[in-house]
Specification:
This protein has 13 helices and 8 strands. It is of the alpha/beta class. Strand 1, helix 1 and strand 2 form a beta-alpha-beta unit. The two termini are 34 Å apart.
């Protein structure tokens, strides 16, 4: 089984509930926490998003003023998305969702570059910007993502709109200088996104629902299925420390920790191959490369064979 991101969470659930059905497991950017509450998960998530903002604005320092100008403009002017609703400053702020994927720094920068055009009443947002921003902030193509995103970290508990509540602990997102938010689902999404407004009652019910246990620590502690897990050092979406704590609980889980790739390393460029599966008795090959994140100057990682899988990890495009 190969599980990327939430697929990795599902893989750990399979290892908990039906390990006899698995011969080996591969997890990329998706080792969940076995102990963190939803609030603890989002508390670390907001810190990672702040770090991603720092990296983005270090690469494009002029974009912070541009983003602040757009937010101010949206607070004063009624700018409509192609789907008819007004684009609000807080919804514009969610464009930071993609800051954890390689290449998305540049995509956001180019979008901001094309934000304004001259209008009859002064500066206005361009059709190009509104079209692209609208496609990014809309959940029309993935309403279930919005509905059950917080449930992914509800191991025997309810979320009760955790991301919204925990955000109050981080005034940085509601003050100057401008800061994007990341992978958080807020209740007001179901008021402003036309694709989600019919689902508001459902969203509230799911937020208050107490989910059953997702993982079985005792079964995982007795694991015999070979597991190989890629852990991205600067992953904006999945906490590195939580992932490594889980890896230590699962016998036979071999981790590759890298600072050279973003959360989407698996899909960025799946070309080259390695030589043996995680069930191989041969030792992993260790190597060290330069780090990219937070002043950490290391990128030690294990390279193992991925059975029947061709993978080349594309570097995260950051300065």
């Amino acid at each position: 089984m190969l599980g990327q991101s939430f697929g990795g969470f599902c893989t750990v659930t399979y290892l908990s509930l039906a390990p006899e059905g698995l011969r080996e497991a591969f997890i990329t950017g998706g080792l969940p926490s076995l102990t963190a509450s939803p609030d603890e998960w989002y508390r670390t998530a907001y810190l990672r998003v702040l770090a991603a903002n720092d990296r983005y604005f270090a690469r494009y320092p002029g974009d912070r003023d541009v983003a602040a100008r757009i937010a101010g403009h949206l607070a004063e002017r009624d700018e409509r998305l192609p789907t008819g609703e007004r684009l609000t400053p807080r919804r514009f702020q969610t464009l930071g969702l993609g800051l954890g994927a390689s290449g998305r720094f540049d995509d956001l920068h180019y979008l901001l570059e094309e934000a304004f055009v001259a209008g009859r009443e002064g500066a206005a947002l361009s059709d190009t910007f509104l079209q692209s921003a609208g496609a990014t902030v809309s959940y029309a193509a993935q309403p279930l993502y919005a509905l059950i995103h917080e449930a992914c970290v509800c191991d025997g508990t309810a979320s009760n709109w955790s991301a919204q509540r925990v955000r109050e602990e981080f005034p940085e997102f509601d003050a100057e200088p401008f800061t994007f938010v990341g992978e958080m689902i807020y209740p007001w999404f179901f008021e402003e996104d036309p694709a989600l407004t019919p689902l508001r009652e459902t969203a509230d019910l799911l937020a208050s629902y107490e989910w059953p246990a997702l993982y079985d620590p005792d079964t995982l502690a007795a694991n015999t299925v070979p597991v190989a897990a890629a852990v991205y050092y600067d992953d904006m979406y999945v906490d590195r420390d939580f992932s490594l704590e889980t890896a230590r609980v699962i016998p036979g889980c071999r981790t590759w920790i890298t600072s050279e790739h973003a959360h989407n390393g698996l899909s960025a460029d799946p070309e080259s191959s390695t030589t043996s599966s995680p069930s191989s008795t041969s030792e992993p090959r260790a190597g060290c490369g330069g780090g990219h994140g937070g002043g950490v100057g290391w990128g030690c990682h294990f390279l193992w064979g991925w059975s029947r899988l061709r993978v080349r990890w594309a570097p995260f495009g950051r300065a």
